[in-house]
Specification:
Bound molecules: nicotinamide-adenine-dinucleotide, (2R)-2,3-dihydroxypropanoic acid
Radius of gyration: 23 Å
Strand content: 5-15%
Structural class: alpha/beta
Number of helices: 13
Mean pLDDT: 97
Shape: globular
Order of helices and strands: EEHEHEHEHEHHEHEHEHEHEHEEHH
Largest sheet: 7 strands, parallel
């Protein structure tokens, strides 16, 4: 028998019952749900990561949809429980959905939503922040200052890397990888090399246009190259940022052998998912190569770090905060809520999950559609023609 889980209830007499496994930023998402006859139950349990058992208790006997988090294990057990309770919709409050077994959701006919687009620039900005912090050794210098060790300017004090004219490498040039690449190319006049399974045409056009602009103004133009292998990026780039999805093909994409191919003074940034890097191999590589630096937002076994990582001066570590800007987190909550609401109301799926702005306009009514359902095709859901 599952333990009861503490909740906060909005609109107790609502016709549809939706559960959110966490309190989320902002109030727009709450208002959008309760205005459409939803009884909303928000879990207020103190523990950060809910177990499958906790979520089954939250779902109960009747539940139309659930808004969940990337820390939860959405597989056979949960989709079966949701389906038994009459549920038709689940949405992650995240773009990444490697915590969701989409095949299990398909089996029970549950639509799975995610929140693309609204976090693209915010996440790319954190990757850029980590790149700068690592290149200019900002965290080490801050610790030095606070420890009272600064006794005057010195020619060798915290000398780092100049980004201008160096090469930035991007693995996974989708929405976030491309936004990061544009920031580094335009902001710091870096040359670009990228690897993706698909051609990043818009990104290539952007860098070409920027190069033309620089040339026309008498400056050295930036360059770009689409690598034919990931190893080419590892060998040529000075900073490498990882932005692929996590799946079987990207698990331990960066391993001991690949780390060895990188420049001795390279910088590696990861704002995608922890298991994309073999973290134990990374700790060893950082130990052996003190000039190699890393900026990590995500870890292989969150919330833990592999032994030794926390002690290394050449590692900057932050707790999975890449999408943590107020506007973005409120927008993620809105998109997740509208995914669930849209499915409950029988709305079609929005025609382009990369163009979700109409759902985020706080002064307007959102379109009558689910912003992003990843298994729309598998479930043969109708697509909005708006
Ligand atoms: N740290 C955070 O807080 C945070 C925030 C947002 C997103 N993310 C992660 O970032 C990921 C990417 O988000 P997005 O919106 O840019 O997704 P996206 O789908 O637009 O981009 C992912 C790209 O990875 C490429 N890719 C897939 N497999 C590859 C492989 N084997 N080698 C090279 N490239 C490959 C795809 O072709 C695609 O272009 C998410 O899935 C999520 O896991 C993390
Ligand atoms: O996938 C995601 O969206 C992140 O990890 C959290 O923003």
């Amino acid at each position: 028998m599952a333990k009861p889980v503490s909740i906060e209830v909005w609109n107790p007499n609502g016709k549809y019952r939706v559960v959110s496994t966490k309190s989320m930023p902002g109030t727009r998402w709450i208002n959008l749900l309760i205005q459409q006859d939803v009884r909303l139950e928000i879990c207020t349990e103190k523990k950060t990561i809910l177990s499958v058992e906790d979520i089954i208790a939250l779902i109960g006997d009747k539940c139309d949809g659930v808004i969940g988090q990337l820390t939860e294990d959405w597989g056979e057990e949960l989709f079966s429980a949701l389906s038994k309770a009459g549920g038709k919709a689940f949405s992650n409050m995240a773009v990444g959905y490697n915590n969701v077994d989409v095949n299990a959701a398909n089996k029970y006919g549950v639509a799975v939503g995610n929140t693309p687009g609204v976090l693209t620039e915010t996440t790319a900005e954190l990757a850029a922040s980590l790149s700068l912090a690592a290149a200019r050794r900002i965290v080490e210098a801050d610790e030095f200052m606070r420890a009272g060790l600064y006794d005057g300017w010195l020619p060798h004090l915290f000398v780092g890397n100049l980004l201008k004219g160096q090469t930035v490498g991007v693995i996974g040039a989708g929405r976030i990888g491309s936004a990061y690449a544009r920031m580094m190319v335009e902001g710091f006049k870096m040359n670009l090399i990228y690897f993706d399974l698909y051609q990043a045409t818009r990104l290539e056009k952007f860098v070409t246009a920027y190069a033309d602009f620089l040339k026309a103004n008498g400056e050295t133009p930036v360059t770009w190259k689409r690598a034919t292998s990931m190893d080419e990026v590892l060998q040529e780039a000075d900073i490498i940022s990882l932005h692929p999805i996590l799946d079987k093909t990207t698990y331990h994409l960066v391993n001991k052998e690949r780390l060895a191919k990188m420049k001795k003074e390279a910088i590696l940034i990861n704002c995608s998912r922890g298991p994309v890097i073999d973290e134990a191999a990374l700790v060893e590589h950082l130990r052996q190569n003190p000039l190699f630096r890393v900026g990590l937002d995500v870890f292989e076994e969150e919330p833990y770090m592999k032994p030794g990582l926390a002690e290394l001066k050449n590692a900057i570590v932050v707790p999975h905060i890449a999408s943590a800007s107020k506007w973005t987190r409120e927008g993620m909550a809105t998109l997740a809520a509208l995914n669930v609401l849209g499915k409950i109301k029988g709305y079609p799926v929005w025609f382009d999950a990369n163009r979700v702005e109409p759902f985020l306009n706080e002064n307007g009514k959102p379109p009558a559609a689910c912003p992003s359902i990843v298994n729309a095709k598998a479930l043969s859901l109708p697509v909005s023609k708006l």
